[in-house]
Design goal:
This protein has one domain. It is an all-alpha fold. Strand 1 (about 160-165) and strand 2 form a beta hairpin. The protein has helices at about 1-5, 20-50, 65-70, 80-90, 100-125, 130-155, 180-195, 205-220, 225-230, 240-260, 270-285, 290-295, 295-315, 325-330, 335-355; strands at about 160-165, 170-175. The chain is globular and about 60 Å long. Strands 1-2 form a two-stranded antiparallel sheet. It has 15 helices and two strands.
């Protein structure tokens, strides 16, 4: 909103032309989201504490230390993230860009589903929450709406195509199959981040790292010169998503200030579902869905560990890991929580670098 308002006066005040630069608006979006998240953090935490007397319900079958160290910590901290990223995006993004609205639809829609789940857990004093089938149905509906916006905006040239990393100008025509594939990416990414969110700071930093990576990808994919130089598909308008992703980074950093061990607040499903869905939506728009699996490899690892654990127990009656997701396995082995978190952050950085390498290795 401020972007449109300020640029309308560029004829009278030439200095306002700086807001026409995407890189400048990306930076100021990050800063705005951080300030909003950081300043409102204490108020949101106090409000949630007053509403949630017992805090987030702790799993009875989880690590024993969690009952002592995490009992009473409020959840729904994702609201703080959504507040910051919405402010950064709505103030500084080009709101005539439909890709921005598609991402906001997925982010806020999945965030609302997460809020319902968190609310159910708190009011029922149970870690069960909303039925998995109900959550999945709502996610499918929202993702369907988003992919219809994305495909209509992209048009037939790129809307139903899948790009392959490491290959120059290789596009697979998915046709209408692109719809269920894109939905799978958004919903899968959302729930993968949700599974990763189990330790203080564990999920938010990899999300920040992945968002920074995709901000670069969105910028070059939406730039004719850079996309031609790197031999990657050009999708007009995706550069504006850098502003949206910068807002995620800023809001995430503000949230991390309060989520760093020992956490004063948990993001809950309100944050994890929305952030994962946002990354999934951006990957679909930029035609880098496969690269998301690389950059977000940590989230994939966490999801696979759960799938392997469940399948192994059902087929053989034995567990592969001491506990799933895999970060709890290392807790059971005696690793300190900060050790697990920092080592997983290192893995996230390395995977992000590999994902960026796909832009050049064609």
């Amino acid at each position: 909103m401020l972007y449109h308002f300020l640029t309308s006066f560029t004829d009278q005040f030439s200095v306002l032309n700086v807001f026409n630069y995407l890189t400048f608006r990306t930076g100021i979006s990050l800063f705005t989201a951080f300030i909003v998240s950081f300043l409102f953090g204490p108020r949101v935490i106090n409000m949630l504490k007053s509403k949630q007397r017992k805090g987030q319900p702790i799993r009875d079958d989880g690590p024993e230390s969690h009952i002592l160290t995490k009992q009473g910590t409020p959840t729904m901290g994702g609201f703080l993230i959504l507040l910051g990223l919405s402010a950064g995006t709505l103030l500084w993004a080009d709101l005539t860009n439909m890709y921005v609205w598609a991402c906001l639809l997925v982010t806020t829609g999945f965030g609302f589903i997460g809020f319902l789940d968190d609310y159910a857990k708190i009011t029922q004093s149970s870690s069960a929450g909303v039925s998995g089938k109900v959550k999945l149905l709502l996610e499918l509906i929202i993702a369907l709406g988003a992919i219809m916006i994305i495909m209509n905006t992209a048009g037939p040239e790129t809307g139903d195509k899948l790009a392959l990393p490491f290959f120059k100008d290789v596009m697979i025509d998915f046709g209408w199959f692109m719809i269920p594939f894109a939905i799978f990416v958004m919903v899968g990414a959302s729930n993968s981040v949700n599974l990763t969110d189990g330790l203080d700071g564990l999920a938010i930093m990899p999300v920040i790292i992945a968002s920074g990576t995709f901000a670069i990808i969105a910028y070059v994919v939406g730039n004719v010169v850079y996309s031609d130089y790197l031999n990657i598909i050009y999708v007009e308008g995706t550069g504006e998503l850098a502003v949206f992703l910068a807002a995620i980074i800023g809001a995430g950093l503000g949230f991390l200030w309060f989520n760093a061990p020992p956490a004063m607040i948990f993001m809950g499903d309100t944050g994890s579902l929305s952030l994962g869905g946002a990354l999934g939506a951006v990957s679909v728009i930029t035609k880098h869905e496969i690269v998301l699996a690389i950059v977000g490899g940590l989230f994939v690892l966490e999801t696979v560990s759960v799938i392997v654990q469940v399948m192994s127990f059902k087929l053989t009656g034995k567990r592969v890991f001491r506990m799933a997701p895999i970060h709890h396995h290392y807790e059971k082995k005696g690793w300190a929580e900060p050790t697990i978190v920092i080592r997983f952050w290192i893995i996230a950085v390395l995977l992000a670098l590999i994902g960026l390498a796909t832009l050049k290795l064609r």
